[in-house]
Structures are given as structure tokens and as C-alpha cells.
């Protein structure tokens, strides 16, 4: 009898919670997105700065994808995964930057509830996918340097496709799914003191205790941040040992040159990502977190194509070949 009473109390409690959540979701249409409104004098300069960074991101990452598609010399496992990285950089920033730019010029700084939740899911998915893809790229470099004669056999196209599909699938189930099933109703005032909506910020807006959500975020970050980082570290330790054993100074220089771009991207991305997602809620700082998120969600995606192309002879060579082809075709059109 007592157990039946307890069960009925739980059912009533759960029903009330669900009703409150449904009512909450149905009444929230938009939230205030603070962004940089605390510094109104900086909004116009920031608009032009972020517009330029966003255009560099779009142009650079799109150029990498096009170069890989049309130049056979770049159709290797390394550049296959670089295309995935370029795609997620474009998708991530497109979910964030246009609304950020609009609010920099708007007098009413708001974001719809649906777009806010979409930004949260997308930032989690793209962040997790980038970590895993960066670890796969480190593994690819390890196989290329330590097993050069068996490289194409080990990293064949079937394996590459399976790794890519696995990266996106794991990212989805490790980031989006847990948040979907633990999402809580938001409490008023509906103010997002950030530049876009992401999980660590929403934790401060939930109406109930967020211990479970914080724990799941740390667990998810451990799986999508720490484990890939461990794989990257182990891969580069093995690469370092292999490079040190090389007798040719030119060979060592080439190996380090191939890995330097990837290491730079990993260092920038993981430094900011771990700070944002692997710390307790008590260490939250609105202004500091805006700068951190700005770096890995807006600036870093624009830096990636520059880092991978400026010192990369293969990419520069492919770009020259494409430009030469365009020049020749234009001359033929003029002559005809």
C-alpha cells in the first residue's frame, strides 16, 4: 500500500514536471542575447571585424573542399578528413555568426527559443566531431610516418569512410542525445549573457538542480575531448620516436612540417574547448567565456584553412595548378 502511494506521488510529480516543461516551452518565444551590448561603443567595429573573419572562414574552408574535389593529388586520406574539418567549420560558424552580426546592429538583442536550442545542439555536435576528426587525422599521420609502405593499404578508402561515419555518429550520440533527454525548462528572466547559446551557458538558466546535467557534460567531454586528446598524444609520441630514428635530416624536416599544422590546430582548439566544457559551473565568468567561445567558434575556424595552407606545399601546388588551368581555359575562350 505504502509502495503504491510512493509510486503515485512519483507519477504526479513527474506529470507536474512535464506539464511545467511543456508550459515553459510553449510560452518562451525568444530570449535576450546579451552578446557585446555591455560595450555598445565596440559593436560597429566588431561587426566589421567578425564579418571579415566569417568571410575568410567561408572562403578558406570552401576553397579547401573544392581543391580536394578537383585536384587528384589531394585526394588522399589526410585531405579527406581535412574536408570534413572544413565542412564542420563552415556549418558551426554559420549557425552562430549571422545571428551574432545581426544583433551587433540591432537595437533589440534577442534570439528565438528554437534557434537558441539549435545553436546549443549544433555547438555540441560540431565540437565533439572536431575533436574526434582531429584525433583521426593524428592517427593518419602516425600511420603515414611510421608505416609508409603500408599506409595506403591500412588507410584505404573503405576505412576512411568508416572512420568518418563513426566520428559523426559517436559525436551525435555522445553530445546531442544526452542533452535532449536531460533538457530542463528555463527560468525567467530569459537572458543569455553570451554571444550564442551553448550548453555551459544554458546550465545557469535551468529551473531545477543541474547536477545531473553537469555530470553528463563532464562525462561527455571526457569521451569526446579527453579520449581523442589521449589518442593524439600517443600518436605524436610514436611519431616523435619514429622521426628521431630517421637518418635523413630532410626526412625529419618533412615529417615535422607535415605534423606542425595539425599540432597547431589541436593546441588552439583543445586549449579553449577544455577550459569551456571541463570545469565546474562555479568557475563561470560571463565576459571571459565570451572571449573563449569567440575564439573556438568564430576565429579558430577561420584560422584552420590558413594554418593548413600557408606552409603546405601540396595545397599551394594544387592551388597553382587550378589557377593555371583557369588561366589556360580563359585564354582558349578569348582566342575562340
From TrEMBL:
Which keywords does this chain's UniProt record carry?
Cell membrane, G-protein coupled receptor, Membrane, Olfaction, Receptor, Sensory transduction, Transducer, Transmembrane, Transmembrane helix
What GO molecular function terms would the record report?
G protein-coupled receptor activity; olfactory receptor activity
Annotated G-protein coupled receptors family 1 profile domain ranges read 60-308
Indicate where this protein is primarily found.
membrane
Tell me the membrane topology, using the record's own terms: Multi-pass membrane protein
Report the transmembrane regions from the record. Answer: 45-70, 77-97, 117-139, 151-181, 225-243, 255-278, 293-311
Where, subcellularly, is it found? Answer: Cell membrane
Q: Which GO terms describe its cellular component?
A: plasma membrane
What function does this protein fulfil?
Putative odorant or sperm cell receptor.
Tell me its family: Belongs to the G-protein coupled receptor 1 family.
The name of this protein is Olfactory receptor
Give the classification, highest ranks.
Eukaryota, Metazoa, Chordata, Craniata, Vertebrata
